[in-house]
């Protein structure tokens, strides 16, 4: 693996997830100050602020970089604001990394925060007839949980997955979420409790689907030279950031049956899903493969979707995800723990913050400071998520 394009993670901080009744600026500011304190860095030394936007936050949410810079106290730093749906946080990380590698800044603060509404997310910004997700909402009436339910039912039909397999994902994530002081839900659950929860989108139940939450996350990134000067001899490093878009089949005749085929209409030429292409681009840039992973943080919008991620990031072949969770491979103490933070199952979605929070967790794990949820011997971590309008991201973090 080459480290020529590494940037250092010298600070990480979160505002705990929950429903606190405040604005997103408060959550992001708390997280930013926590990250600066973790880096032992005065705010005035930050040369650039990259904010992950939240379109639900009004005009301040659309210019999050400037909003957080103002809240922390204007000191002349350049500002950038990034919106990419669920990938906003990772695109903010990628933007900060690019600024550092281009020599535009030695140290950059990345911040994302959200004050999410209760219930299903509604499309923001008015009609979007060119957006396939808007069309799904408007024409099919398929809210995100309905979409997740279709994924789950498809896995049951193709691979023989069961509702108990999905429930095991929630049980696994709730067990480690109970150990995480920043998680919203800190209570272990059983398969029986998942099965007894209300049906949301058959076969998924309430405890199979993530909540919407308030929360904030921040990172302080720097050049490797700055980190050494600052006294961080062996920092956690970001080695790759993938923000690729889907690749459609070349001709109409190549279009698969999205209900039955293993390649979706947002697949890659020659097969494989969009999520797989996100991970593959990150692996290629970092010069690693799935076998190099110590752990991963993936976007478990539903329990069934986490099983898809196992396959898409290369931990196993198609249809083998349920076997991994049954065998404990992805649990704390397993061969490749997935969502040692507790995942969205324990946090819920605070959209622009979540991809940043994933990298915070990987940072603490690779430092060996994750406490009771620490994964032993961590050297390489991957984060991955997927959002509206073809947005997706993966980040490779190494030590």
Number of strands: 11
How much of the sequence lies in strands comes to 15-25%
Q: What is the typical, i.e. mean, pLDDT?
A: 91
Write down the CATH class of the largest domain.
Answer: Alpha Beta
Q: Roughly what percent helix? A: 25-40%
Low-confidence stretches: 250-271
Describe this structure in words.
- The structure is a single chain.
- With 399 residues, the chain is an alpha/beta fold.
- It folds into two domains: 135 residues, Peroxisomal Thiolase, Chain A, domain 1 (3-Layer(aba) Sandwich), CATH 3.40.47.10; 236 residues, 3-Layer(aba) Sandwich (Peroxisomal Thiolase, Chain A, domain 1).
- Helices cover 37% and strands 18% of the residues.
- The strands form two sheets. Strands 3-2-4-7-1-8-11-10-9 form a nine-stranded mixed beta sheet, sandwiched between helices. A two-stranded antiparallel sheet has the order 5-6.
- Strand 5 and strand 6 form a beta hairpin.
- Helix 1 packs across helix 3 and helix 7 packs across helix 11.
- The longest helix is centred in the C-terminal third of the chain and has 17 residues.
Characteristic key phrases:
Peroxisomal Thiolase, Chain A, domain 1, single chain, alpha/beta, globular, 9-stranded mixed β-sheet, 2 domains, 399 residues
In short, what is this structure?
37% of the residues lie in helices and 18% in strands.
Write the layout of secondary structure elements.
Layout (H helix, E strand, L loop, with lengths): L6 E12 L5 H16 L8 E5 L5 H5 L1 H9 L5 E5 L5 H14 L5 E9 L16 H9 L3 H16 L3 H15 L13 H6 L2 E3 L2 E2 L8 E9 L1 H6 L6 E7 L31 H13 L8 E4 L4 H10 L8 H7 L15 H5 L3 H17 L12 E8 L3 E8 L1
Parallel strand pairs: 2-3, 2-4, 9-10
Antiparallel strand pairs: 1-7, 1-8, 4-7, 5-6, 8-11, 10-11
């Amino acid at each position: 693996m080459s480290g020529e394009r590494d940037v250092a993670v010298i600070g990480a901080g979160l505002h705990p997830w929950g429903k606190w009744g405040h604005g997103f600026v408060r959550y992001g500011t708390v997280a930013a100050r926590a990250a600066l304190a973790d880096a032992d860095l005065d705010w005035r030394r930050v040369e650039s602020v990259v904010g992950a936007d939240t379109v639900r936050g009004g005009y301040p949410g659309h210019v999050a970089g400037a909003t957080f810079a103002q809240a922390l106290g204007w000191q002349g730093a350049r500002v950038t604001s990034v919106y990419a749906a669920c990938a906003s946080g990772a695109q903010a990380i990628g933007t900060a990394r690019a600024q550092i590698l281009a020599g535009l800044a030695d140290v950059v603060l990345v911040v994302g925060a959200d004050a999410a509404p209760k219930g299903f997310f509604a499309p923001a910004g008015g009609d979007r007839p060119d957006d396939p997700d808007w069309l799904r909402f408007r024409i099919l009436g398929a809210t995100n949980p309905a979409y997740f339910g279709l994924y789950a039912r498809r896995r049951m039909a193709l691979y023989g997955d069961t509702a108990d397999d999905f429930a095991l994902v929630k049980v696994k994530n709730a067990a480690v979420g109970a150990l995480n002081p920043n998680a919203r839900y800190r209570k272990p659950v059983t398969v029986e409790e998942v099965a007894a929860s209300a049906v949301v989108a058959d076969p998924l139940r309430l405890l199979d689907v993530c909540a919407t939450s308030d929360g904030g996350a921040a990172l302080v990134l720097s050049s490797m030279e700055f980190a050494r000067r600052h006294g961080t001899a062996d920092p956690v490093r970001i080695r790759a950031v993938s923000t690729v878009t889907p690749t459609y089949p070349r001709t109409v005749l190549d279009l698969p049956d999205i209900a039955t085929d293993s390649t979706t209409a947002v697949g890659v030429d020659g097969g494989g899903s969009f999520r797989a292409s996100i991970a593959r681009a990150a692996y290629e840039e970092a010069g690693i493969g799935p076998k190099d992973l110590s752990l991963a943080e993936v976007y478990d919008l539903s329990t069934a979707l986490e099983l898809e991620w196992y396959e898409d990031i290369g931990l196993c072949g198609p249809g083998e995800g349920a076997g991994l969770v049954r065998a404990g491979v992805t649990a704390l103490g397993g061969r490749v723990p997935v969502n040692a933070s507790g995942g969205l199952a324990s946090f819920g979605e605070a959209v622009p913050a979540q991809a940043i929070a994933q990298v915070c967790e990987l940072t603490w794990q690779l430092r060996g400071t994750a406490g009771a949820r620490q994964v032993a011997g961590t050297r390489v971590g991957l984060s991955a998520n997927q959002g509206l309008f073809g947005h997706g991201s993966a980040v490779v973090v190494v030590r």
